Amino acid sequence: MAKVKVRLPGGGSRRLRFAGLGIITVAALLAAVVLWAMFTTDIQPNEFAVRQVYLGPNKGIQDDVYGPGLHFVMPGYERLHAFPRSLQLLEFNDNPVTTSAESLVAPSIHIQTSEGYQVTVDVTIAYRILDPVKVIRRVGPGRLYETSLMIPRSDKYLRQKLGELNAEEFYAGPLRRQKAQEARQLLAADVAPAGIQVWNVMVRHYTYDSRYQEAIEQRKIQDQTVFKNRAEAVAASREAEKNRVLAEGAAAIEVEKERGRGEIKKIRADADLYYRQKVAEGDLLVALAEAEGTRLENQALQAAGAGNMVGLKMAEVVDNAQVIVVPTDGDGGVNPLDLDQLIAGW
């Protein structure tokens, strides 16, 4: 006889209950997630938000500003509009390589200068939202403040102020920066009622059209040639002036040298004259002294006892003569001091 296995219905119902419970749990979680997403809005740390009510007596934009965090929102009744609170950059630039990924990019501005030439200008504008309530009330929600306010107004004032420059004045940095700041002032005054503050307007790059670029390069070359010629002429005149001053200085030096040599000769002549005068005066004094000595000697020779002195002088004369012994007494005696006898004997 064959055996037949029969399953009782109790075990199957238990599994069905567990499966149904799992489905209900998953559905509840999904519903919670959906309700969480529908009834909350997450405001990022670099954002603030404005509440808009669609129904009821208080419908419209509310005055309160909501900061970062998770906020409860009733779907269909109200909504939070988020705006960035960090510094924003608006770049007018046709080159994607030089633009920032975090910036709003618009086409470069084509400025018509006061001379009628076209200049393509790349400009960066830094600004921030101060009051999101004013932004949404005056401009609208989302990014309308960029497309409807900042881009057209910036383009307008940059064309207006930079168009006051001629083509050559774009080369002058101070003038270009001055006009950029004037444009910033006009733009700041225009967007301030909308709750936006303009920090800076920076002209980053400018390009002339090819026709004017070639013309201005040729003009610059001509200007540089003129400046070079002027500089060379000034240098030549300075060189001539230098040579003249050097020649005058050399002549003055020679004159002074000659005057010095003349002074030296004069001083030497005066010294020689003084020397000769003093020598002559000395010779005169010596001659006078010798004459006075001779006079005094003659006077002494005429006085009493002069014979003795003459004898002494004669003795000095014959001091080195040969000594002869002669008798001084008797008949042949000689007195050597008796000059009269000696003279008579000759």
Strand composition percent: 15-25%
In N-to-C order, the SSE pattern is HEEEEEEEEEHHHEHHH
Uncertain runs with pLDDT below 50, 5 residues or more?
4-10
**Helix/strand/pairing category:** alpha+beta
Shape: rod-shaped
CATH class of one domain: Alpha Beta
Number of strands: 10
CATH architecture of one domain: 2-Layer Sandwich
CATH topology group of one domain: Tetrahydropterin Synthase, Chain A
Query: In percent, how helical is the residue content?
Result: 40-55%
CATH superfamily of one domain: Band 7 domain
Write down the Rg.
Answer: 66 Å
Number of helices: 7
Overview of this protein structure:
By secondary structure, the protein is of the alpha+beta class. Among the domains are: 20-83, no CATH class; 87-208, Band 7 domain (Tetrahydropterin Synthase, Chain A). It contains seven helices and ten strands. The protein has helices at residues 10-39, 132-138, 144-162, 173-191, 210-301, 306-317, 339-345, and strands at 40-43, 47-53, 60-66, 69-72, 78-84, 88-92, 104-106, 109-112, 118-129, 196-208. The strands form three sheets. Strands 6, 7, 8, 9 and 10 form a five-stranded mixed β-sheet that branches. A three-stranded antiparallel β-sheet has the order 3-2-5, with helices on one face. A two-stranded antiparallel ribbon has the order 1-4. Strand 8 (109-112) and strand 9 form a beta hairpin. Helix 3 packs antiparallel against helix 4 (173-191). It is rod-shaped, with a radius of gyration of 66 Å.
